[in-house]
């Protein structure tokens, strides 16, 4: 048999083994930005998606979570539930960012193991790399230096989650994996001006300024930090690629491979929402990490390429927010 045919067959066998067609997948956090996109993509691919709202099941409750998982016995679990927020939310509420996330991870991972779930994807975050990591950041940079102080509690919780995934792999041979997404955005994001991430915050600030005819918008920090943004739909497709094709210890980076300054992002968002006024900066607000561009070589080798460019993604997110003004 030809070598390329053998390779293609080997790949399709491993895809089928890691996430069989029609596999039943519990998506924890299915109403969130990442979880809602993941639930859509998995359902479109013919998977049965199992969900619980926070009201039905508080994932910090280990006993109830274990009981739920033992009852439904999913083939796979995607953990996209977490206490999440932008730079100010992380600074103001370090306790839930640390404790909620530790508790959710403990409940879901221990519960999944007890229910004999052999495939699991845990979502880390690019902010858990050292503040001064080399750019673009390779996966090997994890735990090689001090963290960014604005999100250290959240980062430590996420690092614990990655270690937990690795530990279950080593001790029990579980095919569990972790991903390290860059800054995400898209329909379903949080647009609260104080707790959100920068992209939805800017959509809202510029939209309101344009509507009220204000000549200037004041943004946080200096505008010089660089960030990489990935649309939630691309994140979901990347996660599906990992679930089908990846089974290793390294938490793999998930990004688009390009970044820009916050000042450049601001101008792009202002144009998309029709704000033509000035932009000023408030250096009393934190800048956070100077740069966090992920090295996505490994993800690309698995066959993933993003589809949504930033300008289109911003327009799409803006349209969604206009249709959901309470978000
Ligand atoms: N947003 C980003 O820029 C990035 C996110 N990530 C990671 O991706 C994952 C998803 O983030 P994202 O989609 O942005 O977050 P969201 O805040 O949009 O969604 C989080 C989800 O988790 C659920 N949840 C939170 N706490 C509990 C709880 N105690 N019990 C049950 N459900 C709970 C929420 O439920 P409810 O809907 O009821 O509130 C919500 O559905 C997280 O692990 C995050 O760390 C990683 C990198 C960047
Ligand atoms: C995903 C990631 O998200 C967080 O890290 P971050 O990337 O620093 O987050 P951010 O999106 O909030 O800000 C990005 C940049 O943008 C600037 N900025 C300007 N004006 C606004 C503004 O109006 N709102 C916000 N939020 N930021 C603003 C802001 O000063 C900063 O320089 C972590 O908490 C971390 O835990 C994490 O996981």
Question: Do you know the CATH topology?
Answer: Rossmann fold
Task: Output the CATH class name.
Answer: Alpha Beta
- Secondary structure category: alpha/beta
Give the overall average pLDDT: 96
Question: What best-fitting shape do the alpha-carbon axes yield?
Answer: globular
**Unreliably modeled segments:** none
CATH architecture: 3-Layer(aba) Sandwich
- Which molecules are bound in this entry? NADPH dihydro-nicotinamide-adenine-dinucleotide phosphate, the ligand C[C@H]1O[C@H](OP(=O)(O)OP(=O)(O)OC[C@H]2O[C@@H](n3cnc4c(=O)[nH]c(N)nc43)[C@H](O)[C@@H]2O)[C@@H](O)[C@@H](O)C1=O
The total number of structural domains is 1
Per DSSP, what share of the residues sits in E-state strands of 2 or more residues? 5-15%
Helix tally? 11
Largest sheet entry: 6 strands, parallel
Keywords:
single chain, 327 residues, alpha/beta, Rossmann fold, six-stranded parallel β-sheet, two-stranded parallel ribbon, 11 helices, 12 strands, globular, binds NADPH dihydro-nicotinamide-adenine-dinucleotide phosphate, binds the ligand C[C@H]1O[C@H](OP(=O)(O)OP(=O)(O)OC[C@H]2O[C@@H](n3cnc4c(=O)[nH]c(N)nc43)[C@H](O)[C@@H]2O)[C@@H](O)[C@@H](O)C1=O, EC 1.1.1.271, multifunctional enzyme
